[in-house]
Amino acid sequence: MSDIISIRIPYSTSYKELTLKSSRLKAVLTASNQKDESTEVSSYNCDSSKSKQEDIVREALKNPVCSERLRALAKDAEKVLVITSDHTRPVPSAITMPLLLEEIRSQNPDVQIKILIATGFHRPSTCEEIIAKFGAQIAEKEDIINHNSNDNDSMVFKGILPSGGELWLNSLVDWADLVVAEGFIEPHFFAGFSGGRKSILPGIASKKTVFANHCSEFIASKYARTGILENNPIHIDMLFAAQKANLRFILNVVLNSNKEIIKAFAGHPEKAHEQGCEYIRQIAKVKAVKADIVVTSNGGYHLDQNIYQAVKGMTAAESCVNDGGVIIMVAACNDGHGGDAFYRWFADASSPADVARKISHIPRNRTIADQWQAQILARVLMKANVIMVTDQCDPKLIKDMKMLHAFSLDEALKMAEDIVGKDSDVVVIPDGVGVIVE
Predict the structure, then answer these.
(1) Domains and CATH numbers, the chain
(2) Residue 243 three-state SS
(3) Tens digits of per-residue pLDDT, 316-364?
(4) How far apart are CA 373 and CA 378, in angstroms?
(5) Would you say 359 and 212 are in contact if contact means Cβ atoms under 8 Å apart?
(6) CB within 8 A of 201, min separation 6: which ones?
(7) How far is CA 241 from CA 29, 148, 198, 386, 438, in A?
(8) DSSP annotation of 298
(9) CA 433, CA 170: separation in Å to the nearest integer?
């Protein structure tokens, strides 16, 4: 048997290959819904897979959790708002959205429907991204709107969050007789899990409200961690926002590593989401294994488009890497840093500790752009060195943000060995955003 092993790490729409001695590999941590990345793409039958995924979604819509069917809720509605994820999320809307619209119109064909893209604090989705996400037919025929968190004129005041911040949401929630949301559920590095209430906050909230919810005090909470909902101050605010938006029905899916739907949860915004989170918890939890080098990714496209999103995968590695060790983060980052304010936090700082110190002194009601992501990245960088592996992003940008850059995994591994030693143990987490490390 060969002493050399190869492990495929998701990268953009493909993968990069890690090669090392088997004696150095301490563990490969994967969730049970993550397929073996060595599976040949040619064996994947797109037509049968799409049909199977549609069946999973239809079954969920037919049997909603603690709710009437969506068609019954929509029967007497004049205006329905459907909230959906943006280009940074792998929600397979080309499959889910037609089925949602079909369900809404089945007993109310003349209902007026608007589709609102929950951009949160991200940039708007482009026309090309909208077509890629929904398909040409929906992109051309449906009324699709990008939420803009900076447009105060498009917001409506909905109360005071449990945290004390003001809740401002896209005014289309008041335009609609029925508010519905689609999304997907996976572990989330400070909200506990994605999906459900996140479609509202931060999805369609104002910048002011996102800032209140993402304050440094909450990000620092021991409860604002992957897989935790109970006592999580960020989650508590999000639940309140969803209730005030009168979110009535959700469709949330679970995906495997090929971004295929393997499970769907529909119905009551809280109850259906809770069931989905428990399902994810059971399949995604892994036991932490410590090592000097931890290799991970953001699961490839869509979530590895920029450094901002790549922080999520780093937090899984953070749970396993030894102090002073190395995290090798595989992410294309073809969209750059993901936010100029996020970039400037590090480019203008002397060190990650300098970033952390400045953010820790910002009061809850004075939160500024992207400080939450900067706060977490600083925390990671204060524990370990981070080497970003990409051939699609400017190396200078990465170095400005206090990280190291490598074009390949081989190059990154050699750099890591120079830091922690040639024979250091290695842990691999192929998809860092898909696991809950305990």
Answers:
(1) 4-29+289-437 (3.90.226.30), 43-283 (3.40.50.11440)
(2) helix
(3) 999 999 999 999 999 999 999 999 999 999 999 999 999 999 999 999 8
(4) 8
(5) no
(6) 167, 169, 209, 210, 213, 237, 238, 241, 242
(7) 35, 17, 9, 35, 29
(8) B
(9) 28
409 Cα distance to chain centroid: 24
Q: Mind listing the pLDDT tens digit for each residue in 66-101?
A: 999 999 999 999 999 999 999 988 899 999 999 999
Question: How many other CB atoms sit within 10 Å of the CB of residue 181?
Answer: 30
Asked if 121 contacts 284 with a C-beta cutoff of 8 angstroms, the reply is no
Which structure tokens are listed for 377?
A: 């990245």
Catalytic site positions: 122, 188
Q: What angle do CA 332, 338, 344 make, to 5 degrees?
A: 120
Residue 283 to residue 316: CA distance in whole angstroms: 15
Phi, psi of 400 (to 5 degrees): -60, -30
Helix (H, G, I), strand (E, B) or coil at 346: helix
Residue matched to tokens 């064909």: 109
Task: Give 125's DSSP letter.
Answer: P
Contact (CB, 8 A) for 404 and 398: yes
The Cβ of residue 351 has, within 10 Å, a number of other Cβ atoms equal to 13
- Give 232's DSSP letter: -
Give the whole-angstrom CA distance, residue 54 versus residue 38.
Answer: 26
**What is the H or E stretch that residue 223 is in?**
none
- The angle, 0 to 180 degrees and rounded to 10, between the axes of the packed helices 340-347 and 307-318 is 60
Pick from 292, 267, 263: nearest CA to 279:
263
Q: Is the dihedral of CA 35, 38, 43, 46 positive or negative?
A: positive
Distance CA 418, CA 211 (A): 40
Alpha-carbon span 201 to 38, nearest angstrom: 37
Half-sphere exposure of 252 (CA within 13 A, CB side): 28
CA dihedral 406, 409, 414, 416 (to 10 degrees): 80
> For every residue of 58-95, which 3-state class applies, written as one string?
HHHHHCCECCCCHHHHHCCCCEEEEEEECCCCCCCHHH
How would you classify the pairing of strands 247-255 and 4-11?
unpaired
DSSP single-letter state for residue 205: B
CA–CA distance, 277 with 183 (Å, rounded to integer): 13
User: For 106-160, where are the alpha helices, taking DSSP H only?
Assistant: 127-134, 136-141
**pTM above threshold 0.90:** no
